[in-house]
Design the sequence.
């Protein structure tokens, strides 16, 4: 490759001739501007200069070399012409850096709420708004947490609990915890390694990770980071272009993914107002799956920016097609009623996730754990329960091992945890995720002993009192830790007065 001076690169800084520098190499991205999933504006911001710092957090190293034609790879930057630019650190960033240095040590983190509190303090406002936001008035996200406080334990005593075992199987695969890592999008908004923090920690501790469609890291990068024998599932948003979906699903199966979780509660992403107030999203708000798409909305928050490809026509008639393109067990993620649970069963699927998308879709939808009771009762009409051929999972609002035990006692096979693990790596990287696993283990051991359950199979409905679960107004003690980190919605603000 020829040497190109930075002065020459700087002469190509318009939409009609746009060159950028990435990792010391020069690329002509002029023809790619209208195709860029984040729009041309973000590329033009770096036209004629080095874009490496903006490129790295949200792209795998080979993204530009893979997707840009070879004739657009122009050459190498002449190192003798490179002028070192001193980056100005904003006052906001200085405060964030100081908070990073002042974080509590991991030894001081004693519960999952602690991770959320630390993440809230150190995340950029845009990232916190995206991760923490929920739809409309955010009733459901708060109800997800409150529902578990309306379920009370009925512990059994005088049982030999000197040894307790909380391991289980999920879709036939062993898991060291009765918990799996549920899919959350755009991990690199909160940490440079993004979802790889989860992959590495999960592989080390025998926990199953669900890979999100909207990950910041490339799918193959996440799979490549797994250890031999590590179990991973795939969460799928169905693309309007079914050929893209088919290739994605079959590639995942070929790479060894063990289960397909199709999200069915998001024909359109909900209005997440905290996120929407963070307008004019830059490139970090675009997922890897969108790299070759145009028309991505960037002026209504991250959620709008990543939702352009999702197919709202998805329906029950598509289920046979999915079964025809893969041998992976198929689970529907986002079921909320006994009627749909029975349909999933009758279609021969492997299971369902009772979920309201972490409160991010239909506001005032009931919590997954509240729906669990009716769903299990309905499934019992199809035969003996538990049914080894059909599993029911629950996610949303889980912050304690006691929540997990309550859901399992009521009939769940396992429980998905999303935000709590995400906050753990935002705050402390892979070490944070491993500490979160340890917290779950410690809490499971204590709670199972106090409940009188030696194994997960010992958890039965008579160990909980869920009579108050359907009472949405009552005297349940507030969850002070959750309420401390919850950030209330705000109204539109006046501009500063002159």
Sequence:
């Amino acid at each position: 490759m020829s040497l190109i001076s930075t002065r020459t690169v700087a002469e190509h800084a318009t939409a009609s001739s746009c060159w950028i520098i990435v990792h010391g190499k020069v690329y002509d991205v002029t023809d790619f501007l209208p195709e860029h999933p984040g729009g041309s504006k973000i590329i033009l911001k770096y036209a004629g200069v080095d874009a490496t710092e903006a490129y790295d957090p949200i792209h795998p190293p080979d993204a530009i070399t893979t997707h840009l034609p070879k004739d657009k790879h122009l050459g190498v930057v002449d190192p003798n012409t490179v002028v070192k630019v001193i980056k100005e650190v904003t006052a906001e960033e200085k405060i964030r850096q100081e908070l990073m240095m002042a974080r509590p040590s991991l030894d001081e983190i004693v519960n999952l709420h602690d991770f959320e509190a630390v993440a809230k303090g150190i995340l950029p406002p845009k990232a916190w708004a995206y991760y923490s936001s929920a739809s409309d008035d955010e009733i459901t996200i708060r109800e997800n947490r409150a529902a578990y406080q309306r379920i009370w334990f009925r512990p059994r005593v005088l049982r030999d609990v000197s040894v307790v075992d909380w391991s289980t199987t999920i879709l036939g695969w062993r898991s060291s915890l009765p918990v799996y890592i549920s899919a959350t999008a755009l991990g690199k908004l909160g940490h440079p390694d993004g979802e790889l923090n989860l992959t590495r920690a999960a592989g080390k501790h025998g926990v199953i990770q669900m890979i999100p469609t909207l990950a910041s890291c490339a799918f193959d990068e996440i799979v490549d980071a797994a250890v031999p024998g590590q179990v991973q599932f795939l969460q799928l948003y169905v693309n309007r272009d079914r050929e893209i979906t088919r290739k994605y699903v079959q590639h995942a199966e070929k790479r060894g993914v063990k289960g397909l979780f199709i999200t069915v509660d998001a024909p359109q992403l909900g209005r997440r107002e905290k996120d929407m107030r963070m307008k004019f999203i830059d490139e970090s708000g675009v997922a890897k799956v969108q790299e070759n798409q145009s028309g991505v909305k960037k002026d209504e928050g991250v959620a709008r920016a990543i939702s352009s490809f999702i197919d709202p026509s998805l329906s029950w008639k598509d289920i046979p097609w999915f079964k025809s393109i893969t041998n992976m067990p198929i689970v529907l993620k986002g079921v909320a009623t006994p009627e749909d649970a029975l349909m999933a069963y009758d279609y021969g699927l492997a299971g369902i996730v009772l979920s309201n998308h972490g409160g991010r879709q239909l506001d005032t939808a009931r919590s997954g754990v509240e729906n669990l009771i009716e769903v299990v009762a309905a499934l019992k009409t199809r035969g003996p329960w538990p049914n080894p051929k059909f599993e029911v999972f629950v996610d949303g609002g889980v912050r304690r091992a006691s929540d997990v035990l309550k859901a399992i006692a009521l009939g769940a096979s396992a429980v998905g945890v999303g935000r709590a693990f995400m906050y753990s790596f935002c705050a402390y990287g892979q070490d944070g995720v491993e500490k979160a696993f340890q917290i779950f283990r410690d809490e499971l051991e204590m709670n199972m002993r106090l409940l009188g359950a030696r194994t997960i199979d010992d958890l039965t409905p008579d160990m909980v009192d869920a009579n108050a679960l359907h009472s949405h107004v009552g005297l349940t003690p507030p969850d002070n830790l959750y309420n401390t980190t919850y950030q209330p919605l705000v109204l539109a603000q006046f501009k500063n007065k002159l």
